[in-house]
Amino acid sequence: PGRSQGQPIPRNQSKTSSSLLVPQTAVSQAKLALAGGLHSTRRNLTAGHEQSYTNIPKNPGRHRVQKIDVTLSPRDPNAPGQFGRPVVVPPGKKEEAERRWKEGNFNVYLSDLIPVDRAIEDTRPTGCAEQLVHNDLPTTSIIVCFVDEVWSTLLRSVHSVLNRSPPHLIKEILLVDDFSTKDYLKANLDKYMSQFPKVRILRLQERHGLIRARLAGAQNATGDVLTFLDSHVECNVGWLEPLLERVYLNRKKVACPVIEVINDKDMSYMTVDNFQRGVFTWPMNFGWRTIPPDVVAKNGIKETDVIRCPVMAGGLFSIDKSYFYELGTYDPGLDVWGGENMELSFKVWMCGGEIEIIPCSRVGHIFRNDNPYSFPKDRMKTVERNLVRVAEVWLDEYKDLFYGHGDHLIDQGLDVGNLTQQKELRKKLKCKNFKWYLDNVFPDLKAPVVRASGVLINPALGKCITIENTTAMLDDCDGNNQLQQFNYTWIRLIKHGEWCMAPIADEGSLRLQPCDSRDKRLRWLHKSTSGFHPELVDHIVFENYQQLLCMEGNFSQKTLKVSTCNPMKPYQKWKFEKYHEG
Ligand code: LR7
Ligand code: MN
Questions:
Q1: 252: which of 353, 364, 486, 495 fits an S-S bond (Cβ 3.0–4.6 Å)?
Q2: HSE-up of 494 (CA within 13 Å, CB side)?
Q3: Number of the ligand 1 atom closest to the C-alpha atom of 340
Q4: Which atom number of ligand 1 is nearest to the Cα of residue 230?
């Protein structure tokens, strides 16, 4: 448990260019020269400087995605990191580079060395450059929130937007400063950005956290569409039009670029595998899953085809502004960082929208192992609290899968604040339920509502548990007997209908009681020495959480009791009829 993100799978890279690398310092000596044959093995190269977007045909109709002319070269083709090539730290600078790493948890030294407007490889699949988009696409506000971002990466993010987007589509670039402490961001940023009339800086007067900082950005945005970006990205050629095109086609589409990898160590721009979907595993960890090659083949999925995603990564997407507000934006009760991508994803899908990855839109992002900024409260707790809010509002009966998959989640009893408004919003929007989402959007998620079910047998005795009045007894096994049916839930209740198995300590007997998900006495650890393995069920005992007592059958009578756990005692070993993988 921990970070709720993963890096997409990088494509096997042909390292043709890495040996060419000689760090250079003459970044400022801008020279216009042709890229030349050096890079002829690569596909299109995107120039790093601003292009003019003229000759756009008038409405109605469609025009080509604007393409940066490959013969136009960047200011300094020999600069380190140019064309997204990896950079090596010069021998004498190793210590400095190591020392500066923690400023951003990536190679800050190298980031400062490479041009803020470097060119990167055009990694779009073939065909993207020829695609048509509408002439009357909506405008967008680009919202970039940051806290203590490294100067050069923040600038590179902004330059990449300015240089690789058709100006008429960019209403503004909103930089939302989430109460940064770094002097350079306070003193120099306004001056630097004043050369770009479209860039506006919004300073928050206290730390809002990413989620509420985005909301502040949205409130100040004047474009038709909101496009959110992290503050350490590089937008690739033609990245914007395909996103806006999808939103234009249907305002309930949320469009995400393919997120490519800017290597944290050498700052190289690496493309990623095609056909990756954004998914999650329990307990709601975001990740990427490749569409299996046979599925791709069978369905004739092309590299340029849009990929529908159960969830989005969270940082980079375009959404129609009025639709974002219709959905109630993010749950404003979410704190600082994490889980908001889950919330928005469930909300979008369940309330009538769609989430797509657009392969023709590609944006690089620096993936790193830890956040470089501090959290106002404990990071783990913050993310967990956010996820609990999401689970409580959106997961219905499946929320136990979330709680049951994290031992830390099941008991924490966090105060997650008030959820009434969020639940009411879900009702008001007439959103579908989570089962619908599973059936229609994410059918490959393993999500059995219970962990095990059926009769509960003691193999040594050859008897099953049955209910007489409210007392648990032993009897001959009969799968058709309703009184022998139990469910073992993810939060470890042994349920018979709406009743739960409870130990009655002073009698040593077992009875049914009304279920209460918070009552630890009702929880049973179904465990073996080697963890929870259905194939080892013979070795599994039921140990009561609170009293550390185990269920035990009686050889001569039909009775059951709880007694001191002893894994050597066969009469303490139990097995469910069915186990469900989750
Ligand atoms: O308190 C904060 N205030 C901020 O303004 C914390 C962060 N931020 C800014 C920060 O400067 C950065 O620009 O918010 C942005 C995201 O924070 P990162 O880059 O430290 O986090 P990340 O890249 O690990 O974040 C991913 O998960 C987050 C969960 O809340 C957000 O959804 C991020 O947008 C998301 N990033 C991506 O989706 C990019 C691809 C990563 C993946 C998978
Ligand atoms: Mn990030």
A1: 353
A2: 30
A3: 30
A4: 13
Supply the pTM of this predicted model.
0.89
Give me the DSSP letters along 375-441: -SS-HHHHHHHHHHHHHHHH-GGGHHHHHHT-HHHHT--------HHHHHHHHHTT---HHHHHHHT
Q: What single-letter amino acid sits at 245?
A: E
Cα 368 to ligand 2 centre (Å)? 8
Query: Does 37 have pLDDT greater than 50?
Result: no
Tokens describing residue 265: 């160590």
Determine if ligand 1 sits within 6 Å of the CB of residue 231: yes
Residues of the chain above pLDDT 70, percent: 86
Largest CA distance in the chain: 94
Per-residue model confidence (pLDDT) at position 265: 98
* Other Cβ atoms closer than 10 A to 117: 24
Cα 289 to the center of its chain, rounded Å: 12
So what's the pLDDT on residue 557? 86
- The enclosing H or E element of 134 equals strand 132-134
- In this structure, what token pair is assigned to residue 188? 């120099």
Show the tokens assigned to 172.
């503004």
| Cα–Cα distance list, 471 to 65, 478, 507, 561, 565 (Å) | 72, 18, 12, 11, 21
Distance from residue 367's CA to the centre of ligand 1 (Å)? 10
**Half-sphere CA count of 123, side-chain side, radius 13 A:** 29
ipTM comes to 0.98
Beta carbon of 145 within 6 Å of any ligand 1 atom: yes
- Residues contacting residue 365 through CB under 8 Å, at least 6 positions apart: 230, 232, 233, 259, 260, 261, 262, 315, 316
Residue nearest to atom 9 of ligand 1 (CA): 146
The tokens 């908001």 sit on which residue? 340
With CA atoms as reference, report the closest residue to 446 among 293, 309, 280, 277.
280
**Helix 420-428 with 379-394: angle, nearest 10 deg:** 40
Residue of the nearest CA to atom 20 in ligand 1? 371
Q: Which of 337, 363, 366, 370 to mutate for ligand 1's pocket (most ligand atoms within 8 Å of CB)?
A: 337
